[in-house]
Design a protein that fits this description.
Blueprint: H1 7-28, H2 32-65, E1 68-80, E2 83-90, E3 100-107, E4 110-120, H3 122-126, E5 132-141, H4 145-150, E6 155-157, H5 175-181, E7 189-200, E8 205-212, E9 215-220, H6 223-229
Antiparallel strand pairs: 1-2, 1-8, 2-3, 4-5, 4-7, 5-6, 8-9
Helix pairs in contact: 1-2
Length: 236
């Protein structure tokens, strides 16, 4: 919610208070008609201000609970049967965390990205706390359980996410580490868990991975990816 949204309700409420007090003052001076007019007008302005403020809070709550931010873009290129090359591109996260791009070979039919996730309670989201994440690994997976057990495996460590700050600082504060260490005292923490998202691999497919207030979510970003995941996962 933008900050200037609250200016209008505040101004309307201020006008309402002025009119209300002027109306009450007129009543005490025996000016019944002008006093009632001022009181009713002031109450009306205050009601409008309250409705606008409640509407703003409702919109802000929805915006906070549906807030998303990008984690990575994953592009896949087929090198052979059930063998792909995945390019993982992470966006910049400030001056001390530039954008990253790395290539990873993957065996299987699908890619899977995993992260450690710190989820806050909804009221903490509304107050401005976003779900924290730290990327953990990228792996390939097979649709067939038998292949998953016996097939070639490919797992790669990942780094990146919500870090505590630049390494050169003599001290750093991390919401993640603080919440983990003092979880029993921090009522705002909902849960700490490992989360992941996976999608089919296809030649030329591109996916976008986002962190929401509920965890990781992956979406197809081009026609090749949409075709690969259309109607769910189908045997090829």
């Amino acid at each position: 919610m933008v900050w200037w949204w609250w200016i209008a309700p505040a101004l309307v409420g201020l006008i309402g208070l002025v009119l209300l007090f002027r109306g009450l003052g007129a009543l005490f001076r025996g000016r019944v008609f002008s006093g009632l007019l001022g009181g009713v007008g002031g109450a009306g302005f205050l009601a409008v201000a309250m409705i606008a403020a409640l509407l703003g809070m409702d919109i802000q709550t929805y915006a906070r609970l549906t807030y998303e931010r990008p984690v990575a873009t994953i592009e896949t290129r087929q090198l052979g049967p059930q063998y792909f090359e995945a390019t993982v591109m992470q966006p910049a996260r400030g001056e001390n965390a530039p954008a990253l791009s790395n290539l990873y070979p993957l065996h299987g039919d699908e890619w899977r990205i995993e992260a450690q996730v710190l989820k806050w309670k909804p009221w903490a989201n509304v107050l401005g706390l976003n779900t924290q994440y730290r990327l953990d690994r990228l792996s390939g997976r097979y649709r067939s359980i038998e292949q998953e057990i016996n097939g070639a495996r490919s797992v790669h460590p990942l780094s990146g996410g919500d870090e505590a700050g630049p390494e050169w600082m003599p001290w750093r504060v991390s919401a993640w580490d603080t919440a983990r260490k003092y979880r029993q005292y921090v009522d705002a923490v909902d849960t700490l868990y490992g989360g992941g998202a996976y999608m089919p691999m296809a030649d030329g497919a591109r996916y976008e991975v986002w962190i929401t207030q509920s965890g990781l979510v992956a979406r197809p970003a081009n026609d090749a990816a949409r075709a690969a995941s259309a109607g769910g996962w189908t045997e090829q």
